[in-house]
Amino acid sequence: MLLVLCVDLDDDLGRKTGRETPVVGRKSVAAAASELAVADPEDSDVNVLFQGVRVYDDLGESERQAVEIAAITGTQGGDVQANRALGDEVDTVLASLSTGESVSAVVITDGAQDESTLPVIRSRVPIDSVRRVVVRQAQDLESIYYTMKQVLADPETRGTILVPLGILLLIYPAATLASLFDVPGAVLLGVLSAMLGLYTLFRGLGLERSIDGTAERARRLLYTGRVTLVTYVVAAALMVVGGVQGVSLLETAGPTVAGDPALAVASFVHGAVRWFAAAGVTSSLGQVTDEYLNDSFEWRYLNAPFYVLAIALVLFALTGYFLPVAPGVTTLSLADLAFGLTAGTLLGVLSTLGFAVAESRYPTVGGA
Length: 368
Prior knowledge:
Blueprint: E1 2-8, H1 12-17, E2 23-24, H2 26-39, H3 45-62, E3 67-73, H4 79-96, E4 104-109, H5 112-115, H6 118-122, E5 127-132, H7 140-153, H8 155-180, H9 185-205, H10 207-224, H11 227-252, H12 254-257, H13 261-293, H14 303-321, H15 334-361
Helix pairs in contact: 2-3, 8-9, 11-13, 13-14, 14-15
């Protein structure tokens, strides 16, 4: 026969529930565990009793020999008195077993203190196994451990906590290495502080999601052979050139636009708008091409490059009219302004009407 012994050396079961011990039998031990749980939910002996019931059930299903369960207690006094009381309860349990088979025990404890009774139990019955119940949520230290484990298992939380901490921990060793190469410590500290500040700013504003999304879209464009990937790169280059041209014209007209923000903006826009328009047309044509290749093309998509040209024409004429008279700066006349505004308006309107008519007559173009 196997005897499952649930050990409670300091007699929490008897003191807190008023039950007489030892408690023998599955139903009685389960009832005692429930009563102790109600009396003191934080007592680890509750888990010892329930673990004993579980072991009893498992052994009953897997073992061919008979299985019995009992809860034994000591006293709240010294170790000697508690061990003697517990030994007496083991004798009482063994005497109550009506079996001609040899008896061996499976001992359930909740820690080293209860396991100190093993010699007492072993002197009365052979011990086959000792199982210690660890209550994860009961102890503060264990709670901290499992909370940290759960936090570090979350990639987002892990990045939020560990990356700034890693940067802070790198400051001292990085400063030490910098001193070996005669690099000023203030410079290194400024760089690391800037890294930490940028990271905190990105996390605070949620910009990392936008960056991750942009990177993912670029990756998809690269692997799916999208024309827009090339046209976007070309458009970015044209934007850079346009910015340089705008700054160049602003510097040329510098003395005459000093102190007048409106004229400064007009000079920059007039110098850059042609390149910006080329960038807009390039990127829109790439998007239209991809839509056609994906069999989702519609005639109105072709409005985009014409709208860009129309807006660029209007801005070019308007800013050119207000350009200051200066060496190297060509201003536009009122007639030029009128022509630019009229041409831009007609270009936008005619493109809209033309592609609307084309879509009504040829509704499906795509890749068919």
